[in-house]
Design goal:
307 residues, DUF3102, elongated, coiled coil, mainly alpha, Protein export cytoplasm protein SecA ATPase RNA helicase, 13 helices, 0% strand
Length: 307
């Protein structure tokens, strides 16, 4: 009575056809799994070299088709066991033959995760292909971001270790400033061994009024800034050498900064909290570098004038 009352429209008929088609494809997958199980059994019973001939003469399958069917059984066979405990395999049982083939490219654990996160059974072939493509792209971007983060981490560690080394050298220089005793000793030795009198020695020092001396003479208790204590450069090509070294260092810093900003950009879309943590670390490091380089090198401790 109800069937007679139901209006038969093209839309209703199309829905029925699609349902039958979907059910047929589900049955096709179950049948393919069963065929794969039997093919695997037959292959184990045949002697070496008989497999291809048996396929062609007995079932009319190519080896590629047989391998695909056996692969379906190996990957999905347990999902079609008639056991009450296999409720977690329901998403697989709802797949069509084509959907199951497309998902073969995923490892089992990732396949189960993908099935749990997506309504694969309700997707068309094109929709499933696009979802898999988007998944692969997101995975590649995540891996690339992770690699860039590792590069950034190593770069920051290298810069940090370099700054630590510089600070240690500065601290060492601060504790052991340039030896001024040798200069003073030379002056003492001149006074002792040379016929030039101490009066003659001091006469060569420009004299100024006491006010000027008080304003220009450095205070002895001033804290000296540390230096690298580099030896006097006598290489005639020293300028070109160090200019080139400066240029190379600036280029390295520029490249590292670009990689830093790229990694931070990627982290923004992956882990906002981690991005902010790394940004603050980088900012602190850059501020330290900027403050250090602002008036580099530090002034050397002036020599005490002996009178």
């Amino acid at each position: 009575m109800n069937d007679c009352a139901t209006e038969r429209t093209p839309l209703v008929i199309a829905a029925e056809i699609n349902m039958i088609t979907h059910q047929t494809k589900k049955i096709l997958l179950a049948s393919a799994v069963e065929i794969g199980r039997r093919l695997k059994e037959a292959k184990s019973l045949l002697n070496h070299g008989e497999w291809g001939k048996w396929l062609e003469e007995s079932v009319g399958y190519s080896q590629s088709t047989a391998n695909r069917l056996m692969k379906l059984y190996e990957e999905y066979g347990t999902s079609f066991l008639d056991e009450p405990s296999m409720s977690n395999c329901a998403p697989v049982r709802n797949l069509t033959y084509t959907q199951a083939l497309l998902l073969l490219g995923l490892p089992e654990e990732e396949r189960q995760e993908f099935l749990a996160q997506n309504d694969v059974a309700g997707m068309t072939k094109q929709e499933l292909q696009q979802a898999l493509k988007d998944r692969d792209q997101a995975k590649q971007e995540g891996e690339r971001a992770f690699q860039e983060n590792q590069v950034l981490k190593k770069g920051l560690e290298l810069i940090g270790s370099t700054l630590t080394k510089i600070k240690k050298e500065q601290a060492k220089s601060f504790l052991h400033p340039e030896n001024t005793g040798s200069v003073q000793g030379e002056g003492d030795s001149v006074g002792a061994d040379s016929p030039v009198s101490s009066t003659a020695q001091t006469s060569n020092i420009p004299q100024a009024n006491s006010t000027a001396q008080a304003s220009n003479t450095p205070q002895l208790n001033d804290t000296p800034l540390p230096t690298h204590n580099l030896p006097t450069e006598i290489d005639p090509n020293a300028v070109a050498k160090y200019v080139g070294r400066c240029d190379n260092c600036c280029k390295t810093i520029s490249t590292a900064f670009f990689e830093l900003t790229t990694a931070l950009t990627n982290l923004t879309y992956i882990d906002e909290e981690m991005k902010e943590e790394k940004r603050k670390e980088a900012q602190k490091l850059l501020e330290t570098i900027a403050e250090t380089i602002k008036e580099w090198p530090p002034a050397k401790k002036p020599l005490k004038i002996m009178r």
